[in-house]
Batch of 3 targets.
Target 1
Amino acid sequence: MTVFRFFAVFAVSLSLVACVTTTDSRFTKKESPQKAEESYVALGLGYLNAGDLKLARIKLDRALELEPDSAPANAAMGLYWQRRDEPHMAEQFFKKSLDEDSDYTAAHYYYGRFLMTQKRSEEALEHLQIAAQDVEYNGRIQANEDLGLCYSQMKRRKDAYDAFGKAWKLNPDSTVATLNLAILYLDDKDFDQSNRWYQRFERTIAIHEVPQSSASLWVGIQLSRALKDKNREYSYAKLLKQNFSKSAEYKLYSGARRR
């Protein structure tokens, strides 16, 4: 089992920015171009988070009209093109952002995540490390989570342990960290430690009323088998069949049962 397979399941919920209202506002003539540009970027990211790509593009275009060399505006436009599944355009804007301000941590993070989706782990690593180490960056938790996923993709297990552990210390509610630490320990056959992390994961999703995914249930099934807990395995398998009967994980489970 590899940890990176869970990236799509547990990382897509990451917000692009902190909660941003998508309520439009009128900018006064006295407002400076820089302030107006910042406001348009915030609005663009808010609309992007809300899934309204049309309005996001309008706001981000306006931001770039005001400040063509703005690192935040170019980085945000990179996210827009990534969401549009246009990797060439996305990369152009991420690079432009970093060319304008190589110290703009958010651009390093966005670009690092983008490079991971392109399976360019070695390149992604440099940018994710910068974001993960910036103590002032408000996306530092997610940066450490993705750094752990990147290390896992590269089979650098010790570094993956460290990155996920750091993410968990920064946020004990990190389901990405707890589930992937459970996976790492499971792969290393340290079943007691794996169980502890998986139980932390389960407590967190229960508190926040977040349902299990097919991927996390499959981890639970494999862990239960390792612990020889048939009742627990049956419980997870029942949920997997009820909720994810067409998933890849259920096919794995069914195939394993037939053998």
Target 2
Amino acid sequence: MRKSKFTESQIVAILKEGEAGMPVAEVCRKHAFSAPTYYAWKSKYAGAAVSDLTRMRELEAENARLKRMYAELALENTAIKDVL
């Protein structure tokens, strides 16, 4: 999947412009992206603050780390059971 040229904090700021009353077409033209992109971002980031996004990113990283740890332990457990 292609990486966006906008960061999450920029996306939140753009969505706040739209919420402030600026027409969607004008927001899209100003920042050079399409209206469907605006609505996709709105469905994903609606009501989120930058601090919320930072915390969510931290939790996702921790979750990935814990999943790796569980997979390693499950593999070790299976190996030990096979030996016994």
Target 3
Amino acid sequence: MNYSKNFIHNSFRLNGNSFTNFTEVLNYTAKISNDVFLFLEEWFSESNSVIIRTSGSTGKPKNIELQKEKMFNSAIATGNYFGLKAETTALLCLPINYVAGKMMLIRALTLGWSLDIVQSNANPLENVSKMYDFSAMVPLQVENSINYLDKIRKLIVGGGVVSNPLLIKLQNVSTYVFATYGMTETITHIAVKKLNNFSPLKTNFNKSNYYTTLPNVTIYIDERSCLVIKALKVSEKILFTNDVVRLISDTQFEWLGRFDNVINSGGVKLQPELIESKLVKVLEKPFFVAGISDELLGSKLILVVEDFITNTQELKIDIINNMKSLGVFTKYEIPKEIYFLPEFKYTESGKIQRNETLILIGF
């Protein structure tokens, strides 16, 4: 299937409605959602590209121009990888302002899905009564929807790291759940890893450490051990990321963290994401670690916890003692300071904005 302007698959349905041409689609969406209408108006225009705004979770939000043909190719790749053919029932519960939400629409238009749109909130399945073949969520939505996930047969999760406690919960649901790796520049995911429903033992989720690339994607690492992506079907440029990875094979990699988050403390390089993956065994509240300026070390490791608490000294001591007792933290991974905030700063998709949150403490 090749891209062509104004293409609408004859099996495409939106909220149960069918359409004979793109004008009918625009007329309908103008009545239900201004955001959906404005995006599809741009999609069906004569331009060969659309402008997408990034979420700003790893930097300042910015506008990126994406080629429509590349977005079309991405939709085809997702459909082929997950076996999602015409008449697939799908649920759109992500913000339409970002690429993940927009691509659910493009997949439906391109592949002939029956797509329903619900309000994008923290618990999108609470009032849903139908069963769906496919949907996409951010981790916060998955966490809040854990008791309703059986309404979705296949689910992809992006926009943030799936925590270990959530991963454990996912082993008890029938839904086939996959974490995705990608960014706006790659038009959502170029790699996927299965999170649950492993065979023969459902609890054997150590296999979920590795992402597997989709077809027509080539990967390697640069001198920083950061992932480099060549995926000409979805991007004309070779993409040099700031994601530190360990290559398992030509098609598999383990994500370790962000290069720009690395903390150089007294000459010891600390990867916050690795430390945080261990801290989930200690803390139930939202948290993150970061490096702040220090005269002696250059940068010192701190822990920031989202909790409204007045008597913090006793809790700080408990956290440090619990970390030491686990035996999985090096002495360099024990935070020098612990701070508590009643509320973090978050993006619209539920990701912690670390820099903005640190400003609240005074850094």
